[in-house]
Amino acid sequence: MKVEAMKAYLTRRNVLIGGGVVAAGGLAVGGRYLLRKRHAPSPYDDLLALLDDRDADAQIGETVLAELDDFDPKLVADDVRTRVEGRPLAQVVTEDAVEGRVVEAGGWIMPETLALLCALAAKAAA
After folding, report:
1. pTM, entire model
2. Which residue did the predictor score with more confidence, 25 or 2?
3. Do residues 80 and 117 make contact, with C-beta atoms less than 8 angstroms apart?
4. Residue 111 belongs to what H/E stretch?
5. Cβ-based burial of 62 (10 A; exposed 0-12, middle 13-18, buried ≥19)
C-alpha cells in the first residue's frame, strides 16, 4: 500500500474508533476476571477454583460441616485432589452419584466430592 493510501486509512478518527473497539472487546472478555470478588488466599485455592460461586458454596459448606464430626481440611483437600486429578468436576461428582458416594446435609443429598469442596470453601471463608 502506498503512503498516501495508508494516510487515508489511518486518520485520527479511525485510529480512535479502532482503539475503542479493541478496548471494549478486551473488557468484555477479561472484565469478568477483573470484576469478580476477591478472596483471601488459602491453601485450597486450586480446589476452590473448581466452584462456580464460592460464596454460595461456602454457605452450603456450613451445612455440610454441621453434619460432620471430624473434618480435617488438610486431609480432605488431599483426598479431593486425588479424586479430581485434573478431571472436570462434573465428571467426578457424576461418578460419586453413580457409585453412591453421597452426603446428606440439611435435607439435601449431594455428591461427596462436591460436599467436601463446599466444606473447604466454608473453612477458607472463616
Report:
1. 0.69
2. 2
3. yes
4. strand 108-111
5. middle
Contacts of 103 (CB under 8 A, 6+ apart): 64, 67, 109, 110, 111, 112, 115, 116
What Rg value do the Cα atoms of the chain yield, rounded? 23
Residues 96 and 114 sit within 8 Å (Cβ to Cβ): yes
Please name the amino acid found at residue 115.
Answer: A
* Tens of pLDDT, residues 46-102: 899 999 998 999 999 999 999 988 899 999 999 999 999 989 999 999 999 999 999
- Residue pair 89/81 in contact (Cβ under 8 Å)? The answer is no
Q: Which pLDDT belongs to residue 44?
A: 86
Gap between the Cα atoms of 104 and 115, Å rounded: 9
Q: What are phi and psi of 3, to 5 degrees?
A: -60, -40
Distance, in Å, from the CA atom of 117 to the CA atom of 119, rounded to the nearest integer, reads 5
Q: What is d(CA 13, CA 20) in angstroms, rounded to the nearest whole number?
A: 11
Closest CA relative to residue 18, chosen from 26, 34, 30: 26
Q: Please name the helix (run of DSSP H) or strand (run of DSSP E) that holds residue 8, with its range, or none.
A: helix 3-9
